[in-house]
Every structure is written in structure tokens, then in C-alpha cells.
Specification:
alpha+beta; Rossmann fold; Immunoglobulin-like; 5 domains; 9-stranded mixed beta sheet; 6-stranded mixed beta sheet; 23% helix
Length: 792
């Protein structure tokens, strides 16, 4: 018996004595009768136990009758019928579609039977209270009754629903809230909730405490990396309950329902969780969706025929993830001091990457001194001598270098040589400088390259060569300040020797530096590489720089080979080797694409995280019961500074192919940021196009994005009822946790609890059948014992 039951039992004792003037006479009469009883039974010849039993029964009966002379009464309060409100709040979220162990019906079906308006507990509740009925899932809805109850809601907004009830009936007499739910709320936050400010809440636990048989895909995520071996990795966490020793099958399916890959995990233990990883190369660009689904191997085909399943639910056996392959194309500007093998192989390697566009400026002739006696009247560079182009105005003059433009260039792009303004340079994502001296650039262009890295956030890679680094006189130049190595304190160049590459500890941790799958295979690859001969000597590494590759000479001396560093918003790298192309000419590279993969991964790292003029991020919010999704947009101008007064529109395509148009509003607190909120009312895959326009109406860019509305992920994160959460609500609000099968007995006790509006009621104890039967029973028992033993 708990404390509350004991308190209720004590409350049945009388607390008012109507005839207090009879207290003394009743005591005298009772004492006199007690003495007579003792004297009478003392003289009777009978066993002691019989005499004691008879005397005790008659004594208790006499005391009871004597007490009735004082007219004991019970004064209490009862709720005024219909004056107090009582809320019945039923959860109709899809998490109640679970079948508990030992049950043939779902939790929702069991609950619906108890929600019948003719059920005894509802009838009794309506006799004493003004009952208000509500259903809730992701939002609160009033109902007249629960005749059409269905557990098909997309969320369990328990906190928000109780907030609405408290606000709606604030200042009104509300006796309590009967909350019928499994307690698995989807709107819980990290903030603590003070339930003591709420009316008394009586949670009714729906569902059994025993773990249900279930296979659940608890989390799925997609990550894109810069290294070629695994451009997209889909990771899924799977939890298994109730399938001891069975094999679990995990499948990856594309949007068209085609099976991409299958993994089988053998002999899974009961309660075990594991992670499945799929490495894929999508053949398409843009926003793509993949589904991960898991099932027991013995129940193959359950997605087509659910009757094969023995699980509590199949709604958490699959989850969908989005992969965005539409960030490119990225533009890389390669500038070289002369035609060389390096550009040939680099260009060939990137030709297989649809997301990277390589634009080249190859100098094929240097400029001549401006003041030089000319043998002819023509000012054209000597490379055009005796050609049909010599007289054309657009050919390079003798005091200008002759540049070869390579790549898919727009009309007029790079026609003036290396960009001279931010408008020309900042559309690129990375710059590669190869075998090119510092004097090739004007002072303005050198400062522009530094701003390209530090302010625009671009990548800069300098390759080794006869006119790079210290040999190219980059010391004390803005470009030299960007590089991750010091160019002073350079030791004299050593003679040509055989050089080999070695991965440093930091290099082993960088996926884009590695090519092979395992460390052993990687070390074997480096061992088989041909010897190199050209290395640029530099000074020490700058603070914060990382040496990823070392160059080891024949004498065992180690020097930096590849060094990287963050600089401002961007990143820089120094590849100090000048003849990496020898690797491709070696016989060991003919049967693999390690060389091409190295270049692709290096360029991918260089352009990773480079800011776009328009950046889009989708953020799931938990500050409301409907879990709105925020599309956050950052818009920059041509100099990659925040752009205000831009126009941002969002076109959303729903799973039903309905096209919705939203407008992103500026955020007052942050310059250049815009946002719009959208509530996904339909489960499934959403695609969105974000169109950003300049203040004059011209389009800046159009970015594709998307998201997945999957409320079942949170709904079925835990199939057990959240009893601890429900108990804390009850304790702090002054309520009580109730079982579903205890509703009738619970409702009968409500009138004895503290009620806002109640009326006094006084009743005589003597008029209760219990007291009358007790007195008659005691006297009858005493008489029966005497007759049984034949006593006089």
C-alpha cells in the first residue's frame, strides 16, 4: 500500500463530533459495560482463548455503540459537478503503431478501445468535471470525442501541447490533465522545464516496458571527401533487438528503387548495434537521394509483403539521405612560366573530373626590355615575326610575354593575361603557379593574389621549378608572405641526386595525400615510384604549417616536399618537387591511375571549402512543434563581401511535384544573410532552387539543395515508453503516473484530491453501511462462539 492509499484510508475516520455533550455519558456507559463483560466472562467455565475472543468481540461492539452516542460525522469537500475543467489529452502520433511483446494489437488499437466515450472511466469523469478532449501529434487539436481516433501523426509534440493547454486555461479552474502517451516526445530541447507551473498532469503510460522485436536504422549520413577513393560515403547506424544469432542485411537503394549495394552482417547479438558504410560514385550531378534499409535475412521480402515481418514496426527499418553533387564546377587558374610535362599530365588528370574546370595561361615567350633598339618598325613580339598575325593589333607586343590560353574560356576571358582586378580573379577558386618568377606579376597583381587567399578564401598552390620559391625571387613579396615556408635562410642548392618521397605522420592522417587503401599499400607505392631530381630549397616551415610529404636524398637527408597551411580565409600549399611528371613516365604507373588520382585529390583539397558568392545551408529547427526547416543563404558581392539588399527567392519542389515559391528575408543582425522557414507537411524528398539576384535584378547564381522530411526517425528512435520523462512530469506538476488498465480506479479517486472549486459535505458515520455491519458482525460473532461452545 503506497502513501497515497494510506492517506485516503485515514481520511475515512470521523473528524466532527456532533453531540459532544454525550462524550462523558458515553464514556461512563462504555466503561461500565466493559467491567460487566470482564466480570461475566471471568465466572464462565471455558477455555481461556474462547473467553478472550468473546470478550474482545463484545467489548469492541460496546465501544462502537457508545461512540455512536456522540454522533461521529465526516466533514469533507467534493468537487462541484461541472464547475472544474478536466482535460483528456490523447497522443495520436505514429509511434503508437508499435506492437508490444505478447500483444496482437498495436498500442493505438488498445488505446482506442479505452477512449470509447461510454467507457466507465469517461462516464464517471463527465459526472463530476467539465471534460475537454484533445488529440495531439505535431500540433494540438480539440475533438468532441475519440470516435475517429487514428495514430497517424508525424510527431509527438508533448511539451508544446501541454504549453498550449496551460496557456488556454490559464486563470480557469482546471483539476488536471490526463495525458495518454508513450512519452517519446519529439519536441524536447536541452532547456529544463519547470513542470510545477503547470496544472496537475496525470500521464497514462501507453506501451509495455519490455523491449520489442525490432531492427532500426537509427542514423544515416552522407559525407563527400576530397580524395578519389571514396568521393561519397553513406554511413548508417543499425540497432537490432530480438534477432539473436541471425544475419542482418543492409541495402543501399537509389531514387529509382534500384539496388546499389548490399552488405550482410552475420550472427548479430541481441541488442547489438553496428555501422554499415557504403562507398559510391554517383554518375549524376545535382541533388540525389539514397535510401538505406535493413532487415533480417530470414525475412527477405518483408518490404513487399509486411506479413512476413515479426517486428514491432517496419516504419523505422529504412531512412533516406541526401547527397548534393551540385557544388561545381570549380574554376582553377594554372599559370606557368613555360610549356612543360606537368601541365600536360595535370590537364589530362582533371579532364575526368566534371566538377573542376582548368584554365591555363602558359607563357611561350618572355617579354623583351621596353627600351631596346628595334631592327624593324613592328612592335610585335618576335614570336610573330614573318607570320600573318604580325600586323594584328591584338598580338602581344615585344615588351609583353606571349601567353597561350588553354581551357573552356568564355569570350574575352584572360585575354589581357593574368587578371588585374578582383572582378576577374575572384570568380576562380584556386590558383596554381608553376615555374614562374615573381617579376611576371605587377605589384598590384601580387597583392591581388594575397587578397584572393586571405579575403576571398581561395586556394594557392606553388609547384617546384627553376623559377619558383626562392629561385623565383618571391622573398619579401605579397605572394611569398602567403606561402607556408620561409624563403630566407635557404642553403645552397646541392647537386643533382636521386630523391624519394616519404609520408610524414601528418601526411598519413590526410586522406587526400594517400592514394592506396592501406598504409602498407601506400608505403609500397612510394617505394616503387621512380627517383626524382628537382627540389626547391626553402627555409623553415612557418608556424602552423604542416609537412605532409618529405623528400629523402640518397644520403638519407630529409627535406620538406609538400607543406600546407591556412592563410586568412583560404589555404596554401607548397609542392617543392619540380619533376613529379617522371612518375607518369615510369613503367610502374602504366597499369594504374595513381598519378592522375594524386592530382585530382590535390586539386580537390585545394578547392574544398572555398566560399561561393551564394552559399546555402538547410538547418532543422527544434523551436516549434512542427520542426520548421530554415533555408539560410549567404550572399556576397564581387569582392566576396556581404551583399545587402539582394533578392533571394526559393523554389521548393515537394514530394508530390508541387512547386512552391518562397522569399528569403534579410536577417537584421547579420549583413548579407537571408533566410526563410518552411514546414514539410509531407514525408519524403524535397528539392529546392535558391536564386540570388543583385539589387539591380541581375542574377548572381542559382544553387540547388534539398532535404528529407523523415519524422519517423525521431518517432521511432526508442520503442520503449519514456517512463522517466512521464514520471518527472507527474511528480513536479503534482500528478501521478497511471497505467492504462488502472483508468477506472484512478478516476474514482479524483474526487478525493485537491480540486479548485469544491463544496463542503457532512455525512454521518452511523449512516454508513460499513459501521452498521461491523457492529452487528461483532455481536453475532460473540453470540456464535458462545452457542458453539455451549456456554450459558
Amino acid at each position: 500500500m503506497n502513501d497515497w492509499v494510506q492517506d485516503q484510508w485515514l481520511l475515512e475516520w470521523p473528524n466532527v463530533w456532533a453531540a459532544q455533550q454525550w462524550i462523558v455519558p458515553a464514556s461512563v456507559i462504555g466503561a461500565g459495560l466493559f467491567v460487566l463483560i470482564l466480570w461475566a466472562y471471568r465466572s464462565i467455565q471455558a477455555p481461556l482463548i474462547v473467553k478472550l475472543a468473546c470478550a474482545a468481540a463484545k467489548t469492541l461492539a460496546v465501544i462502537l455503540l457508545a461512540a455512536l452516542l456522540v454522533e461521529p460525522m465526516r466533514s469533507e469537500t467534493k468537487p462541484v459537478p461541472g464547475a472544474n475543467l478536466f482535460v483528456v489529452l490523447a497522443d495520436r502520433s505514429q509511434s503508437l503503431q508499435v506492437i508490444d511483446p505478447g500483444e496482437s494489437n498495436t498500442r493505438a488499437e488498445l488505446l482506442k478501445k479505452r477512449l470509447d466515450r461510454q467507457a466507465p472511466w469517461q462516464v464517471r469523469l463527465g459526472q463530476e468535471f467539465d471534460v475537454r478532449r484533445y488529440e495531439f501529434a505535431d500540433r494540438l487539436s480539440p475533438v468532441a470525442d475519440f470516435h475517429d481516433y487514428q495514430a497517424d501523426g508525424r510527431g509527438s509534440a508533448i511539451v508544446a501541447s501541454l504549453d498550449s493547454i496551460a496557456d488556454r486555461f490559464a486563470g480557469r479552474p482546471i483539476a488536471g490533465v490526463l495525458l495518454l502517451t508513450d512519452g517519446n516526445a519529439t519536441d524536447l530541447t536541452e532547456e529544463a522545464i519547470d513542470w510545477s507551473k503547470y496544472p496537475p498532469i496525470f500521464p497514462v503510460q501507453i506501451g509495455a516496458d519490455e523491449p520489442a522485436t525490432d531492427i532500426r536504422v537509427s542514423r544515416v549520413a552522407a559525407s563527400q571527401t576530397n580524395f578519389e577513393a571514396s568521393p561519397v560515403t553513406v554511413t548508417a547506424d543499425v540497432a537490432v533487438t530480438g534477432f539473436p544469432g541471425e544475419s542482418i542485411v543492409v541495402e543501399l537503394v537509389d531514387e529509382q528503387g534500384e539496388l546499389v549495394e548490399t552488405q550482410t552482417v552475420p550472427q548479430v547479438n541481441d541488442g547489438q548495434s553496428f555501422t554499415a558504410r557504403f562507398q559510391i560514385k554517383p554518375g549524376e550531378r545535382g541533388v540525389l537521394f539514397y535510401q538505406v534499409r535493413a532487415y533480417a535475412q530470414s525475412q527477405k521480402g518483408l518490404f513487399d509483403d509486411p506479413s512476413k515481418s515479426s517486428e514491432a514496426t517496419l516504419l523505422n527499418n529504412s531512412r533516406t539521405v541526401m547527397v548534393n553533387r551540385g557544388h561545381g564546377p570549380y574554376k582553377v587558374l594554372y599559370v606557368s612560366g613555360r610549356p612543360n610535362w606537368e601541365f600536360k599530365f595535370l590537364n589530362r588528370s582533371l579532364a575526368e573530373d566534371d566538377e573542376v574546370e582548368l584554365h591555363g595561361l602558359i607563357r611561350i615567350a618572355k617579354k623583351e626590355p621596353r627600351f631596346q633598339f628595334r631592327e624593324k618598325d613592328s612592335n610585335a613580339n618576335r614570336i610573330f615575326t614573318n607570320t600573318d598575325d604580325e600586323a594584328k593589333e591584338q598580338v602581344e607586343q615585344y615588351d609583353e610575354p606571349v601567353l597561350l590560353r588553354v581551357g573552356k574560356l568564355e569570350p574575352g576571358e584572360l585575354s589581357g593575361g593574368f587578371p588585374k582586378s578582383a572582378d576577374e580573379l575572384f570568380p576562380y577558386h584556386a590558383i596554381i603557379l608553376d615555374d614562374l618568377e615573381a617579376d611576371f606579376f605587377t605589384q598590384q597583381q601580387k597583392s591581388l593574389i594575397q587578397e584572393f587567399v586571405s579575403l576571398r578564401g581561395g586556394g594557392l598552390l606553388m609547384l617546384g621549378g627553376g623559377e619558383s620559391f626562392a629561385e623565383g625571387k618571391y622573398l619579401r613579396s605579397p605572394i611569398g608572405e602567403v606561402l607556408p615556408v620561409y624563403l630566407n635562410g635557404v642553403s645552397p642548392r646541392a647537386g643533382a641526386s636521386e630523391l624519394s618521397l616519404a609520408l610524414t605522420r601528418e601526411g598519413l592522417l590526410e586522406p587526400w595525400v594517400r592514394v592506396r587503401t592501406t598504409q602498407q599499400e601506400e608505403l609500397q607505392r612510394l617505394k616503387e615510384m621512380p627517383s626524382l631530381r628537382i627540389l626547391n630549397e626553402v627555409g623553415a616551415l612557418k608556424p602552423g604549417a604542416s609537412e605532409l610529404l618529405s623528400v629523402v636524398s640518397a644520403t638519407g637527408e630529409s627535406r620538406p616536399g609538400l607543406v600546407t597551411q591556412r592563410f586568412g580565409k583560404g589555404r596554401t600549399a607548397a609542392f617543392l618537387i619540380g619533376d613529379l611528371w617522371r612518375w607518369k613516365l615510369h613503367a610502374s604507373s602504366h597499369d594504374n591511375d595513381d598519378f592522375e588520382r594524386t592530382w585530382r585529390q590535390t586539386i580537390r583539397w585545394l578547392i574544398a571549402d572555398v566560399p561561393q558568392r551564394v552559399r546555402v545551408e538547410t538547418i532543422a529547427k527544434k523551436d516549434g512543434p512542427t520542426h520548421p526547416l530554415e533555408v539560410a543563404v549567404q550572399v556576397n558581392d564581387e569582392n566576396y563581401q556581404p551583399l545587402d539588399n539582394a533578392g533571394v527567392a526559393i523554389e521548393v519542389t515537394t514530394p508530390g511535384d508541387e512547386l512552391l515559391r518562397l522569399k528569403a528575408e534579410p536577417k537584421d543582425a547579420v549583413s548579407g544573410q537571408y533566410g526563410s522557414r518552411y514546414v514539410s507537411r509531407i514525408d519524403g524528398m524535397y528539392r529546392a532552387s535558391v536564386i540570388a539576384n543583385n539589387p539591380d535584378g541581375s542574377e548572381i547564381d542559382r544553387i540547388e539543395t534539398g532535404w528529407v522530411a523523415d519524422p519517423a526517425a525521431e518517432e521511432f528512435a526508442n520503442l520503449r515508453p519514456n517512463v522517466n520523462f512521464l514520471r518527472s512530469i507527474a511528480q513536479q506538476s503534482g500528478g501521478e503516473l497511471v497505467r492504462l488498465n488502472q483508468l477506472d480506479s484512478f478516476v474514482n479517486t479524483l474526487s478525493d484530491r485537491e480540486i479548485p472549486i469544491a463544496e463542503p459535505m457532512v455525512r454521518s458515520v452511523w449512516h454508513t453501511w460499513g459501521v452498521f455491519l461491523l457492529a452487528i458482525g461483532l455481536l453475532s460473532m460473540e453470540w456464535g462462539l458462545r452457542r458453539w461452545k455451549g456456554l450459558a
